[in-house]
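Backbone Fold Data
Goal — fold tokens
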Amino acid sequence: MAEAAAAFAPGFGGDYCEDEGDSRVFKAALEVFRKLKDLKCPLLEGLYITEPNTIHELLCTPSKYRLEILEWMCTRVCPSMQDKFSSLNGAPVEAKIQEMVKLGHELMLCAPDDQDLVKGCASPRKQLQFMGQMLDAVQSLAVGCSSYPSVKEDFEDDAEKNEGLLEEFLSSVQLEMLLNPESDPWPVDMQPVLKNQGDDWQGADPVAQSETEKVAELARQLQEGAAKLWALRAELVLAFIQVYDNELGECCQHPDPNLHPCGPIVQAVYQTLTSCSQLLKAVEEVTGTSAEAMDAVKRQEKEPICWDGSSSVMSLATKLEELTRKYQVFNDSLNEGKG
């Protein structure tokens, strides 16, 4: 591990550190490294690095050590990959890379020909996203495998405690005294009726007697149901992988669609039509407003109005005629000045 830390010291492999100054990439690298630590990746034992730049180099620079980390991820997601990798020992490294790409494609995390992503030649953001999603899958599987035993143990502990309490209660002296008191606690007028019932009334409660058996039976049924559910889940996963490998895999490996060169033209036409539609709506609003204004003018043509705070009162039509004359005089004076 010390050699691995030295190999990925700051400054090593600078050609692949495309986003060295991007803090978001460093943050993503730290998150992936934390997940590896939480999952106790054996390849990180004895490796003590904390610098974001060094961790970025470790995870995003092509190296044999980085491929071993990816190989470990693949075996944790799909344990059957361990046998496949073992059979490829001594083969060219490209064979393992192809198997990793195939698994990533089956998990819908990469394209079927994305070897650069596994090799470490893709962009750091894409590499870290791929690793993060792979580790999330590992964590989900780990939580799923550990949750069932935990629930089972908790239920067994509760069942054992309840069984002990019931056994202690049923065998206690106080219960015996309650069922067979030395003095009859019932009123005198009710004693003959109770005595006629004989030993039937004095018998133990059948519900209390069968409580232990019910708890044990429920525990057994819960254990069987949980075991069947876990087995069914494993069978569903295997069935999906087999169906995908045999039937769906080829159907999902379609080439990328071809984009027609007329796309930008269609977009430009769409934008033009949208602008024209907006313009027509504006014209419609202006037309409506003008019609309303004309109606208002017609209604006020004959109504006298006080203009400019002066004492003169005249109608709108008279005021417009006055303004028209003033404008004509002003325009004539301008023309004379030019002449």
